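Please, structure for the following, as tokens.
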Amino acid sequence: MKKLNQLIDTNCDIEVTGIKINSKEIEPGNLFVCTDMGTLDRHQFIDDAIERGASAVIVKKDVGKKSVPIIKVDNPNDLLPILCSKFYDEPENKLTMIGVTGTDGKTSVATMIQTLLGNSNCGYIGTNGYSCSKFNKDTNNTTPDSDKLYGYFDEFVNAGCKYCSMEVCSEALMRGRVKNIKYDVSILTNITSEHLNIHGTLENYINDKCKLFSQTKESGFCILNRDDEHFEKAKSSSRGKVLTYGKDMDNDLYFKDIKLFPGRNLFTIVYKGNEYKIDSPMAGLFNVYNLSAALLTLFALGYKFEDIEDRIKLLKVSGRLELIDEGQDFYVMVDYAHTPNGITKLLEYVKLLPIKRSIVVIGQAGERDPYKRKDVGKIVADGSDIAIFTYEDPRSEDPKDIIEMMIEKIKDYKNYEIVIDRSEAIKRAIDIARPGDMVMVLGKGNETYEKLKDKVIYFNDIEEVKKHIRNRLGIMNK
């Protein structure tokens, strides 16, 4: 706990038991901060927060007299991370902070780094929750709001972690959730068009991504993908020492002699004139890039290849290229790929495998970038033998409308069908699979929810796949 006057310049010395921006999460003694998220102004929830026990409220607007202290400031959004850092005694400064940004690959790179460093030594925050050796918990956002984020840092410190490897999404950078964090290492995977519904233009999206590199310590490192078309922009934004990775010899770390197999990559990396053979359980060319970024990060932090070589075989990212084997005579893969670039790279990789037909189950999220839906639909229909379009977190949108946008460019194609219910779509793909086929369920990975119009339900693609395979095997064995 802290006194309010320890957090902000005020004469009020009441006890603060926590900091929250969601009135529904307020517990007795919490400080309620009225952030403005553009579409959601939290000033309207002040009375609810007070009823639930808020001890004080931070506001930007005049809200009249209330039963608890009201403190007016210029910008609650900017103040929030400062308050949270003070409340938890600046936990971000007790950790070596590693931030990963990019359109695709954030989860993979951040998780690889945690595995290579050891989860007793390194915490992870991102799409798959937040975790270390002491716990594994869910989060609501890839990069949570500051009131939660600094609490997670504090948990890592208390668990004995020395590092934090976190995904830093473009929206978090745009909204200032990590504005006051100075990163020891920042990493770029790639940048392709995405989230234009939030950022407005591709230029804005790129600029927001590159804020991460300007928030890197001068004594730190910016690990950049030189093969990405926006490399120069990221480089010009970088404050730390720039280290690059990619396929060409002029990189600080480059890779060669790549051999791709189902569930495995063999390749060689070259760093400071030394060659190292890599046998990685993370398949696909994109994971050659992802692992190269992670390895270069470890080298920048002072690790030698011999220190981490044995950990490479432990690499696994839940919901990424996850092969499900229940004894069936066809392949089934669950993957988080949901962007045009991510899906394209995945389908290119699958075409290299010794499979027969490819069957893809996919949707697109509601209230998210609608501009890419028709492109995703065409990429999937062009790159697979059978496409099954379904819903994926439709939120307030009608799933039929989303799917209609996805098939806009392919209405004369014969290789797709629509099964709106996601469980039924997965069942359909499993039912029509023949020996040697590859079924891919894309877009959700290991997420455990579906966001519908009026509620959030439990749903997990991996569990659904296993259920339908088992049901099919049970029918076949009768």
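The first strand starts at residue 2 and ends at 3. The radius of gyration is 23 Å.
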